[in-house]
């Protein structure tokens, strides 16, 4: 564990989806340089938490700080500007735009043209398959390629914190492995990462610490090697009859 | 089945019982203006919208007459002007409203034939006399409505006059456009009949939509037929666009002729620009110049029917004066039938000439004159043609 | 009917159709841009067009009265266009802020009703301003014509066709090439994902209204110069026809709106040849019905969002 300062600090947030009380006093910390994973089953509130961090949903109570400043009352586009990028659930790439245009949208908040170009090369290094199809319409890509594009797009904002919402979903195991290798690489290059997953087995392999969420509350928090040993985690998230 | 027959029989019986009464003179009822209350003269004309210059002109003419008169037998006369939108539904609504107003003795209007036609049925129901200054459509006086009169002419005359003029110019290849209104269409079709009767050739009769601005497609369609004249039955808003767009599609040698709806300085000559030069329109002979001077000093340039409206209002007020009976309590009682008969018996030397009505409510001895838009000394105006 | 196949008539009708079609297309773009991004029909778009036309009218009238138009007719017209586009843009932006944004998350019927309300309100405002009288654009430049054989083409027609194409190409390049344009497409496709890219969605929506309204303002001046008569109701029928054009081309589809506009203009011009001219409006709305029945997504297809 590379112990840095807390980068993202979520304290006791309550978020509602309409009238549904989705997050009931959730707290979570991500330190500078870490890969932290949040695991939980469908509907536990994982995506809700990421949307609250990104400002798409607003918490009614509690506070969220990023690098020491409060962000829970900021609009989503301002949160991106201060350094948080999200790879949303279901990828949400712009399927009518070309790959190049998708990446440009990823870099929307930046004006440093020359460094954007360098970063563009950088993400093509990470995902060479995208480089060959720069002018292709994104909607025509395969599921794995779309996931790559979604990650590449989020990286184009040069985030300090990358939020990943189930990057393994719907992908073949080989592809999942490739994606996770890339996440490690991105982290080594200095991007703090919060990884939300149902696939706890894979997530624990790359994350240093983990949280377990159930019906809007954190029920467990520990180093990932300890979580793997935990009986409840094994039964619920690592068992053969998972899902 | 039995029930239905019963209703049928009953309704017939009802009619049989009612008919003699409703046709009897006494049954038309009376209008009572209580002491201290004004006498209201109604007015129905388009006061907002594309033909509003025409309607406002009518309003000014009526207003001038009413203000000049001031009062009748101690009751002030006031004008109640309503915006009829030059259309049936709003005219009917106004008719219902004014006919049920106990102080309204009669109405000047409605402006458009399409409004006068349905509204006259309502007026006939309540037996409230109406005198239109501008509804010229043929059928208005052909429907046996006893309370309808007009100080303008019947389009029968206008169409015949226009056709004679066209014939005298030896223009025989004619296309007709009309705006599908009760006024424009019947006028256009009547004109076409006259042309055919004189041996001319009607190349096309096409309808256009009021409020539309683009007539190039239909004019392009007409163009290869090589008409010598396009006759337009309709209003100035569309007419001025037709003359502009005739030039646009290349109908530059074709003459244009239209009706009183286009006899307006503002909406035809000005709105038509240079394209309006050389166009022919039909209208009455010019009213008393002294009156025009007085009118224009007060309201600005006269457009079309203000003189006819002025005369209509005067005829109505004179009839009221003639038949109204002053009661000891200061109220005024006006027999509706007597009022209608007084209007029908009018012999008035108005500013538009001698006015009398025939048995149908049409003005006798109407004269329709041909005008041409000319430019002389930098001024553009309607010049009366010697014909 | 043989004269209908007369080449001169055909060419003239193409010119007539393209002229009015260019105006429909410019207006249709406003409908399609807003629909593409908000999935709502901005029924007040016709009134934005109407206000633009009156803005240009006010400017030109001022120039004529001050004598400026005599000395610089072309410059006067350019300024009239700018004035119209600015007035329409401001109006479009105000509408978005006041009438639509508060209802952004309301059921779809709510902004539609708000739009109809705004449309009636704006008509009445203008009715009070002009006292409900028809106004006539001043003739600043005398209309000239080109005549080739029996074909007559007005310079005004050429001006409108080229002008509308110029604006459309400009819009197309803007949407395809600029960062804001791409952001507009991104927002149209997925508002939430766009906000996660750091795009200020509200600003982009406002920009979309401004651009669509500016095009409508330009169309308003073109109509004023070409047809000369304007009134407070002038936005109604062209508005519905432009909406028809947008649906014809596939609502939400920018290229489709342009195509739909020209297609509708040509259909009206040529339809008149085969049926009485009084059915001109029937052509437009008949086409709308046919498209909705047989090809509800329009000629080029609606841009359907992945969003549910």
Short key terms for the protein model shown above:
A: alpha/beta; 10 strands; 37% helix; C: 308 residues; mainly alpha; ABC transporter involved in vitamin B12 uptake, BtuC; two-stranded antiparallel ribbon; two-stranded antiparallel sheet
Q: How would you summarize what this structure contains?
A:
The complex is a heterotrimer of chains A (243), B (387) and C (308). Chain B has 387 residues and is an alpha/beta fold.
What does this 3D model show about the protein?
The complex is a heterotrimer of chains A (243), B (387) and C (308). Chain A has 243 residues and is an alpha/beta fold. Chain A has helices at residues 46-54, 76-81, 99-106, 113-126, 128-131, 143-155, 173-188, 200-206, 224-229, 231-238; strands spanning 6-17, 20-31, 35-39, 59-66, 69-70, 84-87, 161-165, 192-197, 209-214, 217-223. Chain A is built from ten helices and ten strands. In chain A, helix 3 runs parallel beside helix 6 (143-155). Chain B is elongated and about 75 Å long. Chain B has two domains: 30-152 and 305-355, Response regulator (Rossmann fold, 3-Layer(aba) Sandwich), CATH 3.40.50; 156-286 and 368-384, Rossmann fold, CATH 3.40.50.2300. Chain C has a single domain (2-294), classed as ABC transporter involved in vitamin B12 uptake, BtuC (Orthogonal Bundle), CATH 1.10.3470. Chain C contains twelve helices and four strands; from the N terminus they run H-H-H-H-H-E-E-E-H-H-H-H-E-H-H-H. In chain C, helix 6 (155-177) packs antiparallel against helix 9 (201-227) and helix 7 crosses helix 9 (201-227). The interface between B and C is large, with 38 and 47 residues.
């Amino acid at each position: 564990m590379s112990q840095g300062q807390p980068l993202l600090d979520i304290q006791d947030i309550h978020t509602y989806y309409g009238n549904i009380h989705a997050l009931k006093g959730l707290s979570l910390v991500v330190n500078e340089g870490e890969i932290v994973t949040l695991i939980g089953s469908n509907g536990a509130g994982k995506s809700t938490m990421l949307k609250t961090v990104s400002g798409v949903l607003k918490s009614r109570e509690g506070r969220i700080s990023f690098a020491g400043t409060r962000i829970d009352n900021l609009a989503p586009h301002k949160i991106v500007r201060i350094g948080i990028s999200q790879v949303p659930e279901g990828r949400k790439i712009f399927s009518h735009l070309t790959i190049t245009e998708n990446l440009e949208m990823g870099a929307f908040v930046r004006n440093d043209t020359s460094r954007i170009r360098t970063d563009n090369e950088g993400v093509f290094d990470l995902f060479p398959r995208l480089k060959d199809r720069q002018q292709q319409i994104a909607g025509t890509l395969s599921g794995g390629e779309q996931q790559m594009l979604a990650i590449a797009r989020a990286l184009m904002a040069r985030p300090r914190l990358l939020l990943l919402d189930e990057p393994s979903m719907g992908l073949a195991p080989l592809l999942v492995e490739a994606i996770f290798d890339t996440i490690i690489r991105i982290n080594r290059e200095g991007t703090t990462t919060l990884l939300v997953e149902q696939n706890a087995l894979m997530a624990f392999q790359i994350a240093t610490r983990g949280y377990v969420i159930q019906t809007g509350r954190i029920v467990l928090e520990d180093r990932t090697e300890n979580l793997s040993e935990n009986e409840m985690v094994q039964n619920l998230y690592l068992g053969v009859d998972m899902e | 089945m039995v029930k239905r027959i019963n209703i049928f029989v009953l309704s017939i019986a009802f009619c049989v019982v009612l008919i003699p009464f409703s046709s009897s003179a006494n049954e038309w009822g009376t209008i009572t203006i209580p002491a201290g209350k004004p006498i209201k003269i109604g007015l129905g004309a388009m006061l907002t919208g594309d033909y509003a210059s025409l309607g406002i002109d009518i309003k000014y003419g009526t207003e001038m007459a009413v203000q000049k008169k001031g009062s009748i037998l101690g009751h002030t006369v006031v004008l109640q002007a309503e915006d009829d939108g030059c259309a049936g539904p709003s005219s009917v609504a106004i008719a219902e409203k004014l006919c049920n107003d106990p102080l309204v003795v009669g109405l000047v209007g409605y402006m458009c034939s399409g409004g006068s036609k349905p509204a006259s049925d309502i007026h006939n129901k309540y037996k409230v006399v109406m005198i239109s200054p501008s509804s010229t459509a043929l059928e208005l006086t052909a429907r046996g409505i006893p309370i309808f009169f007009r100080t303008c002419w019947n389009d029968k005359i206008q169409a015949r006059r226009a056709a004679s003029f066209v014939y005298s110019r030896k223009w025989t290849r004619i296309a007709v456009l009309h705006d599908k209104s009760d006024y424009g269409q019947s006028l256009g079709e009547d004109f076409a009949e006259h042309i055919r009767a004189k041996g001319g050739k009607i190349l096309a009769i096409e309808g256009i939509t009021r409020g539309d601005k683009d007539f190039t497609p239909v004019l392009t369609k007409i163009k290869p037929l090589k008409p010598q004249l396009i006759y337009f039955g309709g209003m100035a808003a569309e007419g001025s666009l037709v003359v502009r767009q005739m030039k646009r599609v290349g109908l530059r040698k074709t003459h244009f002729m239209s009706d009183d709806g286009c006899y307006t300085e503002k909406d035809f000559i000005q709105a038509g620009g240079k394209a309006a030069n050389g166009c022919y329109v039909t209208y009455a002979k010019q009213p008393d110049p002294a009156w025009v001077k007085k009118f224009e000093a007060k309201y600005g340039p006269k457009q079309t029917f203000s003189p006819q409206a002025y005369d209509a209002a005067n005829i109505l007020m004179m009839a009221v004066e003639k038949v109204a009976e002053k009661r000891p309590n200061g109220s005024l009682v006006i027999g509706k039938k007597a009022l209608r008969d007084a209007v029908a018996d009018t012999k008035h030397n108005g500013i538009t000439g001698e006015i009398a009505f025939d048995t149908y409510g049409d003005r006798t001895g109407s004269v329709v004159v041909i005008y041409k838009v000319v430019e002389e000394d930098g001024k553009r105006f309607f010049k009366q043609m010697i014909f | 009917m043989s004269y209908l196949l007369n080449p001169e008539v055909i060419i003239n009708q193409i010119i007539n159709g393209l002229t009015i079609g260019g105006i429909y297309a410019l207006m249709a773009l406003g409908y399609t841009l807003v629909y593409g991004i908000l999935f709502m029909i901005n029924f007040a778009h016709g009134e934005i067009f109407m206000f633009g036309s009156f803005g240009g009218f006010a400017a030109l009238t001022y120039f004529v009265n001050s004598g400026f138009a005599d000395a610089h007719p072309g410059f006067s017209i350019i300024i009239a266009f700018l004035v119209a586009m600015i007035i329409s843009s401001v109006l479009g932006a105000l509408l978005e802020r006041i009438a639509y944004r508060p209802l952004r998350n309301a059921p779809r019927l709510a902004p539609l009703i708000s739009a109809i309300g705004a449309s009636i309100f704006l008509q009445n405002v203008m009715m009070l301003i002009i006292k409900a009288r028809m106004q006539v654009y001043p003739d600043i430049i005398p209309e000239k014509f080109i005549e080739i054989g029996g074909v007559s083409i007005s310079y005004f027609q050429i001006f409108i066709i080229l002008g509308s194409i110029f604006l459309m190409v400009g819009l197309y390049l803007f949407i395809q090439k600029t960062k804001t344009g791409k952001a507009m497409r991104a927002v149209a496709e997925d508002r939430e994902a766009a906000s996660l890219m750091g795009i200020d969605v509200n600003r982009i929506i406002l920009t979309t209204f401004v651009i669509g309204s500016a095009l409508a303002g330009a169309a308003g001046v073109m109509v004023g110069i070409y047809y000369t008569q304007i009134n407070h109701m002038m936005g109604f029928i062209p508005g519905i026809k432009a909406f028809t054009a947008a649906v014809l081309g596939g609502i939400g589809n920018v290229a489709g709106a342009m195509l739909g506009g020209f297609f509708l203009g040509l259909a009206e011009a040529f339809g008149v040849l085969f049926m009485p001219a009084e059915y001109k409006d029937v052509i437009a709305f008949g086409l709308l019905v046919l498209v909705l029945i047989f090809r509800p997504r329009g000629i080029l297809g609606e841009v359907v969002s992945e969003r549910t």
